[in-house]
Amino acid sequence: MFKKYFFSIFLILFFFILIYLSLNSNFRRNFFNLSIGFVNSYYSIVIQQNLANDITVIDSIKKVEEQIKFTDFLSNKSKNTFTDDIYGNLYLIEEFLNSDEEFEYFSKVIEKIIDKDPDIYDALIWKAKIMKHKNLDKKKIFQLIDNAIELSPARQIAYRFILDFSRETNDDENFKIYCSKYNNSILGGYMKKRQASLFKGSYLTRFALQIGNKIDNVYIMEGINLNQEELYTFTLLKEEDISKINILSNFLPGTLINIISIELINKDFNKILIPLKDIYISSNNSFFLEDQRIVKVINTSFEDEKIKIDFLKNYKNINEIRIKINFSKSNLTNKFKC
Q1: The CATH number of the domain where 49 resides is what?
Q2: Higher pLDDT, residue 187 or 328
């Protein structure tokens, strides 16, 4: 009797869920998105464990094949928001490829994911890599990379590939061209899914100043200039007594932040130049390069960064903060300015 009631309740709940899914589009969308999220998390964990435990690379590639099939079944066969997770697994597996056989098998799986949308950044990079492996049209490879750079000029993956390719093919002219493009590109970036972030991705177009540690006392600076000293001025909404400030950012890895000077302006319009050698600066993720004159910081992470500046003294009635910074990029090779 109990089994009969249990089965009846199960059927009722099952049909209720089906009806609700069919009638409520928001619930249906959230339900499928959550399902795909669980699927992608499962495959990412399994692939990482396989690679860490010396299980064959082919087995990990097969897991990506399964992942593509599952996301196609749960969503659709065009690009969706979970394609990024699949590309993330492909980049991870690429580091473990050791033979032509593995790359050939790998290429076939890549072609399946490229079919979802052949014109996105990652798809263009992978098409160029496959063409290089097969010794196909050199001009087409450069065109694919140009298309990728046009989509996201500041992102590094395309430059790393094409600089190596230019050197391997003894193409010094293109090597110099792409070096210049990389060092001066500022638009585009890398979107990473986060629960909460001031920046919602890694870019080179904005940063912020936080007064003390108050979460609501943040001033956004839109727009930066690369490869030159620039004075960034923050006008405060009200006078503040300041002993600590934080520079908040989510710059791409490899970004150099050279802090040249910090100046405070008080209510009487007096300028107070902060001696950099007498303050204490640390960060969440970045590293510091020794220099007696300025503060040199190199960003190493895709995560939100906080450069914490302690003046070791309290300055009264401040209404403006001026920070002179030279933003630039670390080199991708050992060649000068590249």
Answers
A1: 1.25.40.10
A2: 328
Q: Check whether residue 125 and residue 170 sit in a common domain.
A: yes
DSSP letter (8 states) at residue 220: E
What gap in Å lies between CA 192 and CA 202, rounded to an integer? 8
Residues ≥6 apart with Cβ < 8 Å to 318: 236, 239, 240, 241, 242, 264, 265, 266
C-alpha 36/C-alpha 83 separation (Å) is 10
* Residue 309's pLDDT band (cuts 50, 70, 90): very high
Helix (H), strand (E), coil (C) string for 60-95: HHHHHHHHHHHHHHHCCCCCCCCHHHHHHHHHHHHC
Q: Is position 4 within any domain? A: no
CA torsion, ordered 79, 85, 91, 93, to nearest 10 deg: -120
Residues composing the chain: 338
Concatenated DSSP letters of 223-260: ---BSS-EEEEEEEEEEEEEEEEEEEE-PPTTEEEEEE
Q: If you average pLDDT over residues 163-181, what whole number do you get?
A: 92
CB 218 within 8 A of CB 323: no
Asked if residue 122 is part of any domain, the answer here is yes
Same domain membership, residue 169 and residue 28: yes
Residues 136 and 212 in one domain: no
pLDDT, tens only, 192-249: 555 556 676 677 888 999 998 777 788 999 888 889 999 999 999 999 899 999 999 8
Confidence of residue 60 (pLDDT cuts 50, 70, 90): confident
Q: How far is CA 269 from the centre of its chain?
A: 40
Q: Residues 261, 276: contact at Cβ < 8 Å?
A: yes
Query: What is the span of the domain harbouring residue 272?
Result: 202-329
pTM greater than 0.85:
no
Whether residue 181 sits in one domain with residue 208: no
